[in-house]
């Protein structure tokens, strides 16, 4: 439950090893969160000192994005550890390599399942809990890759497009319940997961994404972009003729 001045007390991170997810959690802890649950396959150890030195108690639970039958149980376990969930950060996924996916369609399907259908089951499980509580926010890490899908990463981008649409629909379904969804659309973020990808214009650090999320939670926003310049840029890209879009996507 939020405290008497409305600050977040509890945070659940689905994707407990995500660099962006951990940056968001640390930002919320700096703002006053005191109970953190890291959910990952095999459990997730907290970053050395980063969260506990800031005064948070850190718990670890099992979470497998590819096992939708277990997602409701993961949420329930987190609630058992810390009580009501003020913020749930949905930050799991895989980036992969488009050429490898084209050479191995089965691996592409597995990646798409993690990047989309895993979020559907996890998101619905979280939404049910937030609706029952009557408060709380689900932060969904989407991507500009899903705003208009490009040739060089269309397996990943199409899954993100599906996730973005799902998150928007889920937000509408929670309207009036006291719970809400914040969709986050970062551009290129240099992390371990993206180390094999060429840098793109207008990059953001995990810390900058975390700051955008914290600001969005405070303001009640439904969508945030990181950096903000990507919003008008991709508004124009949506309208770009397809022939030109293909050329840019090479």
Sum up the structure in keywords.
single chain, 250 residues, alpha/beta, 7 strands, NAD(P)-bd_dom_sf, Sc_DH/Rdtase_CS
Topology:
Blueprint: E1 10-14, H1 19-30, E2 35-40, E3 57-62, H2 71-82, E4 87-90, H3 98-103, H4 105-133, E5 136-141, H5 154-174, E6 179-186, H6 206-219, E7 223-226, H7 230-238, H8 242-248
Parallel strand pairs: 1-2, 1-4, 2-3, 4-5, 5-6, 6-7
Helix pairs in contact: 1-6, 2-4, 4-5
Biggest sheet: strand arrangement: 3-2-1-4-5-6-7
Distance between the termini: 48 Å
Strand content: 15-25%
The largest sheet, given as strand count, sense and whether it forms a barrel, is: 7 strands, parallel
Radius of gyration (CA) equals 18 Å
Mean pLDDT across all residues, rounded? 90
Low-confidence stretches: none
Number of beta strands: 7
Amount of helix: 40-55%
Shape: globular
What do you see in this structure?
Helix 1 (19-30) links the parallel strand 1 (10-14) and strand 2. The chain contains 8 helices and 7 strands; from the N terminus they run E-H-E-E-H-E-H-H-E-H-E-H-E-H-H. The protein has helices spanning 19-30, 71-82, 98-103, 105-133, 154-174, 206-219, 230-238, 242-248; strands spanning 10-14, 35-40, 57-62, 87-90, 136-141, 179-186, 223-226. The longest helix is centred in the middle third of the chain and has 29 residues, at 105-133. 44% of the residues lie in helices and 16% in strands. The termini are far apart. The protein is an alpha/beta fold. The protein has a 7-stranded parallel sheet, with helices on both faces.
